[in-house]
Amino acid sequence: MPNRPPSHNANRRRQPKARGALATSRWTRFSARVRRRYPLCMAPFHRGPQVPATAVHHILPRATHPHLTFSEPNCCPVCAQCHGLVEGAERAGEVTAGWFDGWM
Fold first, then answer.
1. Which DSSP state fits 52?
2. Which of 47, 42, 37 is nearest to 59 (CA)?
3. Quick one: which of 86, 91, 56, 84 has its CA closest to 72?
4. Sign of the Cα pseudo-torsion (94, 46, 22, 58, in order)
5. Where do the structural domains in the chain lie, given as residue ranges?
6. Are 84 and 41 in contact, with CB atoms under 8 Å apart?
7. pTM value?
8. Could you please report the per-residue DSSP string of 6-17?
């Protein structure tokens, strides 16, 4: 019986792996609970029609505040567009915590 050669797709884009606490079932449950409680994008800078929250953003970064990873007041449910905006600003070195003043 012949063996099948291993399949390989060179054009397939690899998805980045979630790291640390975000790769756990605890985070999955926590973020789902936050999004159930606040189902719409709650970013204070969101413009346009209300849209569903698809992510939960850590206001104070996990890298410097790991003890707040599962703290609801430090987590804001956001849409993909707002999450990309704030994450991009943070990658560029901007401090974005003030963007979320008064959301909760």
1. B
2. 42
3. 56
4. positive
5. 24-100
6. no
7. 0.75
8. PP--TTPPPPPP
pLDDT at 79 (0 to 100): 95
For the residues 8-31, what does the mean pLDDT come to? Answer: 67
Q: What is the mean pLDDT of the chain?
A: 84
pLDDT of residue 70: 95
Q: Which of 61, 56, 70, 62 is closest to 103 using CA atoms?
A: 56
Closest by alpha carbon to 60, among 97, 94, 25, 35? 97
Give how far Cα 78 sits from Cα of 2, 72, 88, Å. Answer: 51, 13, 14
Average of pLDDT values for 66-95? Answer: 94
- The Cα 45–Cα 26 span in angstroms is 28
Residue 62 buriedness (CB in 10 A; 0-12 / 13-18 / 19+): middle
